[in-house]
Design a protein that fits this description.
about 170 residues, alpha/beta, fumarase, globular
């Protein structure tokens, strides 16, 4: 049975999640990937994250672009994406959605900031049915790679890293 989470995600909810748990997500989540995440980090470093117009605390960020074809995960271990995970977690993001294995240092940072990484299946058609609306948040000049806020209902994912462990390091079942 899947654990259902609604945004914003609480610290307590994250503490309960374990590697391999199946989750569903509902509520508003951010979408961003390698083109926009460095810009978001720059705003955080400058203490200007309020300029985004969304509160990062308890937030979920999906490593994807938003296009007319829908949304689907991109590889979270791309340099610009993976290097954003620790600072975004420190800023309050609780769940990072994407695909692919993360480096041990990133998994340790997730644990340090009480955040998790969830692997989302690359099924754009399924996610399209579960994406209820989207809104451009920042950096419109990046087109589909700008920062978006989407409203979702029952997005499926699997916890891929939590509490210093990774599903990619677990023995095969």
């Amino acid at each position: 049975m899947a654990i259902h989470l609604t945004t914003p995600i609480s610290d307590e909810a994250v503490r309960q999640l374990q590697v391999g748990d199946t989750i569903t997500l509902s509520g508003y989540i951010l979408c961003g990937r390698d083109a926009v995440l460095p810009r978001v980090l720059r705003l955080i470093d400058e203490g200007r994250e309020a300029a985004l117009g969304v509160d990062l605390r308890g937030q979920v960020i999906f490593h994807t672009a938003v296009s007319p074809a829908g949304v689907g995960p991109t590889s979270s271990n791309k340099l610009e994406i993976e290097s954003s995970i620790a600072p975004l977690s420190r800023a309050g993001v609780k769940v990072h959605l994407g695909k692919g294995a993360l480096h041990p240092e990133t998994i340790a940072a997730l644990d340090r900031f009480n955040a998790v990484y969830a692997v989302i299946p690359p099924v754009t058609a399924l996610l399209g049915e579960k994406t209820l609306e989207n809104r451009l948040v920042a950096f419109p000049e990046l087109g589909m790679e700008a920062l978006y806020l989407i409203r979702v209902d029952l997005y499926p994912a699997i916890i891929g890293a939590a509490h210093g462990r990774s599903i990619y390091d677990e023995p095969a079942l």
